[in-house]
Amino acid sequence: xxxxxTVYEALDHAHGGEGQWAFGTGFDEPLAGVDxxxxxxxxxxxxxEYCLMLGDDALVLAQRLTxxxxxxxxxxxxxxxxxxxxxxxxxxxxxxxxxxSVGVLGRSRSxxxxxxxxxxxxxYFRDADEFRCTALVSAVNGxxxxxxxxxxxxxxxxxxxxxxxxxxxxxxxxxxAAKGVNELAYHRDHAARWLLRLGDGTDESHRRAQAGVDAVxxxxxDVFTATELETRLTAxxxxxxxxxxxxxxxxxxxxxLETATLTVPSWPGDAPPRGRLGEHGPDLAExxxxxxxxxxxxxxxxx
Amino acid sequence: xVTAVRTDAxxxxxxxxxxxxxMLTLADLGVLRDVRVEEGTVVVDITPTYTGCPAMGxxxxxxxxxxxxxxxxxxxxxxxxxxxxxxxxxxxAGRRKLAAGGIAPPGSAPVRxxxxxxxxxxxxxxxxxxxxxxSADTEELSEFGATACKALRRCRSCREPxxxxxxx
Lengths: 303, 168
What we know:
heterodimer, A: Ferritin, disordered N terminus, B: alpha/beta, four-stranded mixed beta sheet, 23% helix
């Protein structure tokens, strides 16, 4: 096993002796060596925006989950939440790097210094109105039962989308999806088993599980509505129209809730997309503040 | 000549160990996918175990460092995302080394199909023998462990907890 000093020397060496940017893991380009050619007939700007939608969902949910660190109900669950967030953060990194590789960087690039990698510039130097996540992931955690309910819903939808995205004509998206499916199945099943434990547990855990589900359900209003961009990219064989996963998602969620002795709330009607177009409530800006403040205060910091 | 260089470079790359599971080489783990020489540059393909695996940067740096030390000046470590890594790629030698190191090796990875991924509501059907006493009577304590690739189990015979590389 290499001595620690050797590892850091090697890291330093790999980057021409320059220090590492302090707020990301910039020594490892996530798409190094991956062929990032855009498929024929696809507008790179569209592809990049779509990667922001998928990447921001993962980044923001990861950040929400991270808020449980030091506060989870048991140590094992803290580790589970940390690992789940880490998987999502990994997906976010690849997707934001993919957006950067086709030049979709919004206003972030003008604020971030050149040494900051694209995916970090996108994470730290965009304001809330440039994020493309849905309210399902940006909403506050609530108690643990509500957090579990949201994780179940969000990972069920993401898994269904990613399972189809494995067939995307964009080889980078297809590869990210194929890898993500294995991770997301783990997240979904973990959340589902927690909901079973809570729903079919004590009177108090049942009450809280039902309240958590009831609080999350209205957030489903705009998640199955495609933006014009998603419709366009679905027709081009790149994206997955979220409306296509609605049936599967409802089946899975109904199965989990019924097994957990919980009542399935009425499904909200389809609302026009909001978060995907950058329209967010105050929750997202409140979440991004602590995430971004240090990097913005010290944009040139290295270690 | 080129073949000899490639063989040498491969031999060097195959000695590099995993930063989190130091009893295993990256080759044992199935992370090292290919080593070749392209116009004088040693090109190494690696694949992440998990998308968010924070050890990728260290793996990349360790490979570059080992090859530089062996006299290969130009080294390019590339990430291969597809096909996705599976625990089935951990070699037989790697499984023996894991068990000897007190970590239960994974069983067969779940079969991957093109359609929807079936929901698993029951207890995980994974089994793992205790790497310390060999008993098959073990239980899962947590689906997640100290690193993304491991779950935590306990042996009901010797009562010792142990880590298990989870099938993916």
